[in-house]
Every structure is written in C-alpha cells, then in structure tokens.
Amino acid sequence: MLYILLLALFYATVAYFEVPRMVKNGMRRELYAFAVISLLGFILATGQILNFKLPNLTRGIEILVRPVSKAVERKLFPPQAPGWRQSYGRIEGSKAHFGGGLMGFEERLKERGIVLPESPQPVAAYVPYVVVDGLVFTAGQLPVAAGKMRYTGRVGAELSLDEGRAAARLCVLNALAVVRAAAGSLDNVARVVKLTGYVASAPDFFEQPQVLNGAS
C-alpha cells in the first residue's frame, strides 16, 4: 500500500503544478491526455503491485494505440505493389509485376539479356555487404569488370556523358551481384530501398543526373 500511496502522491504533485498551467494556456488536448495517461498508469501500476491480471485493460490500451500507429504507418510507408510483402524485417514474396504478369527478378534479367558479373572482391580492408534486419547494405562499387577498372577520369573532361552512363551501369551491376551473393538469389529480394551515386565530374559539367540514369 505504501507504493500506491507514493504513486498517488506523485500524480497529485504533478497535477497540482501542471493542471493550472494547462488550463491557463488553453491546452485542453494536453490536459485530457495527461488525465488519461495518469489514470491508466495508476491502474496498471496498482495492478502490478497487487498482482492483478488486467487483460481487458491492456487490450483496451492496445486498441487505443493501434489506429494511430496504423495511420502513421500508412502515411509514412504507402502500400507496396501487389506481390510484395514484408514481415518484421524478413522479406517475403519477391515477384514483381512486369507486362501484366508475375516475374522474378532473375527471370527479368534474362529477358533483358543482362548477365550479372561475379561479386567483386574487396580491394581493401572492408566487407562487401552487411545484412541488418533484413536489409542488405552494400559497399561502394567502382566501374570494375574482370578485375580491371574500365573507366577512369572525370565526366565532362576525360570521359564523355555516354561513358559516364556506362560506368554507372557497370557499378550498379556490380552492386546487384553483391546483393545476389548476400541473398542467394535476387528472387529473395523485395525491392531496392536506396541507391546513392557519386559522379567525379569536371567543374563545368552539370549533367550528373543523366550519368546516374545509367544506374537507375
């Protein structure tokens, strides 16, 4: 009972100082929220202290919170295309819609005549990829083919725009090869979340987005 009295004293003290300020400033919504949170917190704490089981109350709290969470989730993460499904960090279902039907990424590559290279070996002290919560983070890629640098220089100076596009395409193919090595198959991948590109260019060159189109 001492714990309950101390808890009640705490809420009473907070209410004594905070409620007048909220009323004075017209903070009705904050006042209602404070009252509800205080009441629920007191009841839950009392139940824990006295070993009460409150399944209905905890279920009610879950129902109160869930609509807000789902609304925020839908706003931040719009529904994905049919065929995608993500469940708690594990990606499931990797069929994409192309031409009106379901097609895996590996099949899509074959259809377009794209052959991925072997996963490039690290050229320094780093790992090619890291998997965190179902996401594959790859190391930066260079326009390397068969162990040799295919393009060097700055776009707009030593390299043309078309050569820059080709270099970007080669970089993303290497990145996809790394992802395939990490996932076992591109059909185990749901989608690309983020692609970052860096373009070494001449001072008077301003078509970097056109270069990166070779990758995207």
From TrEMBL:
Q: Which Pfam families match?
A: YjgF_endoribonc
Biological source species: Ammonifex degensii
Per its record, how is this protein called by name?
RidA family protein
Q: Which InterPro entries match?
A: Endoribo_LPSP/chorism_mut-like, RutC-like_sf
This protein's superkingdom?
Answer: Bacteria
Which PANTHER family does the record associate with it? ENDORIBONUCLEASE L-PSP_CHORISMATE MUTASE-LIKE DOMAIN-CONTAINING PROTEIN (PTHR43760:SF1), ENDORIBONUCLEASE-RELATED (PTHR43760)
Q: Please give the start and end residues of each transmembrane region.
A: 31-50
Q: Which UniProt keywords apply?
A: Membrane, Transmembrane, Transmembrane helix
Q: Which residues form the Endoribonuclease L-PSP/chorismate mutase-like domain?
A: 106-216
